[in-house]
Structures are given as C-alpha cells and as structure tokens.
Amino acid sequence: MINTHDKIDFSRFGKKFQESLCRIVLDDREFCDQVFEVLKVEFFEVKYLQLFIQVIIDYKREFGVQPSRDILATILRSGIEDESDVLKKQVRDYFTKLITTTPDFEGDAFIKKKALDFCRKQNLKEAMIKSAKLIHSASFEEISRIINDSLKLGSNTDFGYDYLKDFEKRYEVRFRRPITTGWKQVDAITGGGLGKGELGVVVAPTGAGKSMALVHLAAQALKQGKTVVYYTLELEDTVVAKRFDSCLTGVHLTDLNDMKEVVLEKVRDLKGSLIVKEYPTKYASTETIKSHLIRLKNRGIEPDFIAIDYADLLKPVRHQREKRQELEEIYEELRGIAKIAEATLYTASQTNRSGLNAEVVTMESISEAFNKCFVADFIFSLSRTVEDKNNNTGRIFIAKNRNGADGMVYPIFMDTSNVCIKVIDDNGESPSVVMDRAAKKQEESLRERYKKFKSSQ
C-alpha cells in the first residue's frame, strides 16, 4: 500500500545536501537535464533554494541553454520579480557563498545518485497512484505506458557535448589546476605545468636519469600538497622512496641511513601524500594500473599526480604483430587513465642508440620513441654526455608542448647524489645553436690535443 502522506522533500538529507545539489545542477548540464525530468521545486525544503532552482528552470525553458554563473549573477541582482526582498537577499547570499567557497567535490557522485533516486521514486509513485485510479477504466496498454514512461524519465541523458545546449560551457574559464615542474622556465611555457588529465613524457637514453627526473616532478607535486601515486617497474619501492627522501631534504643518498632521523623530521610535515607501488618488469599492464587506482579510490585515495617508471616496461594488454604497435597502444591507454583519474600523469621512455652521447636529444634521436608519444601533451628529453655527468650538467629539450612554445633547449644542473635537478637561468636556445656550439667546442678540443701532440714530437 502506497503511503501518500510521506513527506515528499529532501529534508531527510539535510540543508548542506540540498545546497550542494543546487551547485551541481548549475554547473553540470548533463545531470541538470537528467534530473529536471523528475525534479520538482517543492522537493527543496527551504524557499531560497526553491527560488534558485526555479530561476535555472525558467532560463532553460526560455533560452534552451544552461545559464552560466555570470548570467545567473546578473539575474539574481536585478531579474527576480514578485518576490520579497528578504527572499531575494537569501538567494544572493547563498550564491555569493557558492562562488566564493571552494567546494568539496568528493561527495558529488553520492549527492547526484541519492537525489536522482529520490526524484525518480517520487515520480514512479505518482505514476502508480494514477494507474491505480485507472485500473477499472483504462486499458492495460494505457496503464503500462504510464508506468513505462515514468521509468524512462530521469535516465542517463548524456549523449555528448551538445553544440547549442552547452553553448555557455565553451566560453567558461577553464581551470587546469596545473602542477608545477619545479622549473620556472618550463612552467612559463606550459602554463604553470601539466594539468589534470594531461600526459607528460620524459625521453632519455639509458643512464641519463629518467627515473630521477620522474622523482623530481613527483616531489614538486608533494610539496604542493598533492596526492602522488608512483609506480615503479624496475626499482624496489624502498629504493624509490629513498630517492624521494633525498630529493625532498637534500641529504645525499649515501648518507640517508646515518641521517634518517633528520630526514623524518623534514618530511614529517609534508602536506601531500605518497604511495609507491612496485610491480616486476613486464608483469603489470595498464589494466593492472587501472585496477590498483580503483582499489585506492575505494579506500578514499584519489591521486592528483601519477608517475609510471616507466611505460616501456609495462606488459601490453593485447599482443600485436609489432612491438611498436603495442607501445603506441600503451601510451594511448595511459592518456585515458589520466583523463579518467583526472590526474596529471608522467612517464618515461628510452631513446634509440643515437641518443646515448648526443649533446641534445632532438627529434632525430627520439624518432623511434616519439611514435609512441603522439598522444602526449608534453614531451621533454634529457641529455647528459660523459662530460656532463662528471660536471653535474646536462640539457633539457622541449620536444612537444600543447600548452605553449616548444623547440627550446635549457641547460640544467643535475646532481644524482641527492636527486637535485635545476634549470639554469637562461632564455632557452634552439637545438641548432647548442649543437653548433658543441661542434665548435669539440673542434677546439681537437686542435688543442693536436698542438700538444706536435709539441711533444
């Protein structure tokens, strides 16, 4: 028996739930379209939230698009008629709080699910009551249609980006929330670093310091208070964790055991959190990574930054005829992981042999690796000759940058004893200039050696 005297509103969920639901309805067009099929203004317990929702409903009916925050602000300032001044002020105060307070997005999925479930049940209840009244006067098909139509309302309406309905969405200011690289010169050309859903790749020959660069980048995220998940497919998790100790504190790797109390004191108050997950080489695939991220999410851990050291060592999900195709698919899947997790994702790739002693690892040296990085948003190479390793120097070449300029070379200081990588103050040079300077330097060195040889004769 259906109890028609049940209280039909959101009061059971509380005021904070209802205020958050109004924010979601405003900012999420797909959900707004879906819930508006079954939502009634009267479901909101307080008058100012009822008025807030009614303004959105009226705007959508008149113009056929979702109102932006700017448009809603204009309407709330001057466009509300036939309402008391007290109620208008309450709506404006709520909207001011909405746009000035950083929302907690973690509960949005729960709020959407509960609100939609409540609204659809109320809609179904009304359909069942109507059907019960028609049981003796209407045909089975008519009653069946009433129930079925009710069940369809509020179902998922996300068919993609609607050119007209989402008109305002493409003019909204987008917040990438970039995570710094720790290098101000690189941040300047990438818009502050890589944002959520973006894929970055470090390309370097063996022994040049790919893993060190990934630790450096992940450490910058930690310093920003971000949640970092670092997957290691080559080194032990404790070895990687010690590299973080050294990078964050400046203590040399060889001194960590003797200075562990000092290290703990320095890292104890880090705002960010770090999880290092170790998998054997060629044991884990992108599906393994996805499963692990889901398990973390179930524990309330959602990463802002993901590092995979390194993608070439992942097992392909599907074996294909050529290894090149397997690697390309791996990188495509990593981009998908970054998007779904809404996190910045960095990985590394190894160059071909020509990059081993190159002064600058340019496109020619990384051509084989570059084929698997087409989907990347940002690619930089790391080059260090034998002389560089002795002098703690090297070069970063910006090979690809979707958010700004590329093609520059930046000289770096790199001390692997404490995972310290700094870009030396420089405006950046083109690879050809660096290569010409290297060639001249080599020629001068050969001349000096020849002079010494002649004088010794």
List the helices and strands and how they pair.
Layout: H1 15-27, H2 29-36, H3 47-63, H4 69-79, H5 85-100, H6 108-133, H7 140-152, H8 184-190, E1 199-204, H9 210-223, E2 227-232, H10 237-249, H11 260-267, E3 273-278, H12 286-298, E4 305-309, H13 323-341, E5 344-350, H14 367-370, E6 378-383, H15 386-391, E7 393-401, E8 409-415, E9 420-423, H16 431-455
Parallel strand pairs: 1-5, 1-6, 2-3, 2-4, 4-5
Antiparallel strand pairs: 6-7, 7-8, 8-9
Helix pairs in contact: 1-2, 1-3, 1-6, 3-5, 4-5, 6-7, 9-10, 10-11
CATH uppermost class of the largest domain: Alpha Beta
Radius of gyration: 29 Å
Strand order of the largest sheet: 3-2-4-5-1-6-7-8-9
- In CATH terms, what is the architecture of the largest domain? 3-Layer(aba) Sandwich
**Distance from first to last alpha carbon:** 113 Å
Structural class: alpha/beta
H and E string = HHHHHHHHEHEHHEHEHEHEHEEEH
Identify the overall geometry.
elongated
Stretches where pLDDT falls below 50 for ≥5 residues? 1-5
If you consult CATH, what is the topology of the largest domain? Rossmann fold
Q: How many helices in DSSP terms?
A: 16
Return the average pLDDT rounded to an integer.
Answer: 84
Number of strands: 9
- Which strand-content bin applies to the residues? 5-15%
Count up the domains. Answer: 2
CATH superfamily of the largest domain: P-loop containing nucleotide triphosphate hydrolases
Largest sheet: 9 strands, mixed
The percent of residues in helical segments reads: 40-55%
